[in-house]
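Give me structure tokens for this 510-residue protein.
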Amino acid sequence: MKKKITKSLTAVALVLSLLTACSSGGGAEPTVSPNSTSNQEKGSTASETKQPIKIEIVQDGTVQFPENDFIKKALLDKLNIDLTMTVEPTEYISKLNTRVAGGNFPDLMILDKNQAQKYSESGALLDFGPYMDKLPDYVSFLGEEELKKGLFQGEQYTLPKIAGKPTGTYWIRKDWLDALGLPMPTTIDELFKVAKAFTENDPDKNNKKDTFGITGTELNTFAPVFGAYGLVNSGSYLIKDNKLSNALYDPAMKDALAEVKRFIDAGVVDPEFLSNKTNVAKDKAFQGKFGIIYEGWSGIVKADAKKVWKDANPNTEWTQLGALTGPSEKSYVSGVEMAGWLQLLAVPKNMEKDPEKLNKILELINYVSTEEGNLLVSYGIKDEHFTIDNGKVTITDKGKAESGFTFVYQFTGRKDEKYLVAKFSEQAEYIEYELGLPRVGIADGYVVPPTGFNKADADRFVKEEFSEFLYGKKSLDQYDQFLKTLEDSFQYKMYTESVETQVKELGLIK
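Here you go.
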């Protein structure tokens, strides 16, 4: 979803001009009154409409639907909606742009912020603002403040999903610590000593110098080290104590980079960490080459992952580290995007001409946000796929076998604190631990970059320069010159001013 948009919006504009032409003549086209009632009153079990309303929903992802799609059937029975679920595993945005350019809008689409911005600017999206009174359960489920994530040009062109909770921390080979008689590290200096011992003192006792201290994926490898300085490893905007700051301009950034360079210079880090992608670092760690890795619980202790490293060495024992104590008054394990992995629900503007379908879409959004509806799309059929006892959800064996696809129906999201623990009860202690770790808030996801500023290019430049500093190709004495180049060549000042304005307008800082 973060791929650059490859299709021009010229064709989209043409389609929109046609839609505008169709809607401007005669005043005879049907419209949806914001105060009109839905075909089905809240709490009813079946719609009075004889034929189900057909609704197509498109989204990015990979899923295998079962032959017996009990979620689709339950929604049909409850709301009289016949859903067509289009889930694109590749080139989602490109395919969606092609459809839109051809005037073939889906009824409901799930977008990222960049694409939502483009569609809203071109006039393609319905403004949900006049219809929010039809979504009381959705608003209650999400929270009034969270609605701001869906604003574009001051209008509610999209409805945000509840963002998933961040996970990830350092995992360390406790069996290696025990073999070397080392305590669990709690500070940056202690982490350095452990990484050095893992590299030099044969922690696996095979009489070979074939191990290293730390691996990971790109700069996230050192997220907790940056976090010990109260920072993140990028040019993100941080909100701490109701104050906004850019990590690049923080005086501590040079010290954090110098600290990471100390690990690299000591030879205790995966030489390929900056180029590691996806599961490469994890594969190396599971093979017994590295003793510390930054990773989420699901990548280490879910059943399929655990089997890999246990099969490789039954004596392996991975355990989690918390936030490292550093020079900052507040230490963090990592940054967390306050807007989360932002997914936004959007409806084409011309849906106003089909009031019956629009009301059904609103009804669907509202229903999956109720307790009953969200339980359905999270776990399946009550007392068949899950049970509830004193508020605690337990997944049945049938639920474990049959409910792996239900996430695609979670149109408004879910509450991860309960969902993950119920869904992965065997890993509950690891999940709860990572959900409880301190993370510094990042405001970038709320911000629409100003016209003329290319954030992707600026971010790429920052990564390249960080690499130069970390590997000694440039002295940290040149850091101020790096900032000046960023401002002069990438219009970074324009971006920073825009961020500050938008963050204040959204009320993220008082």
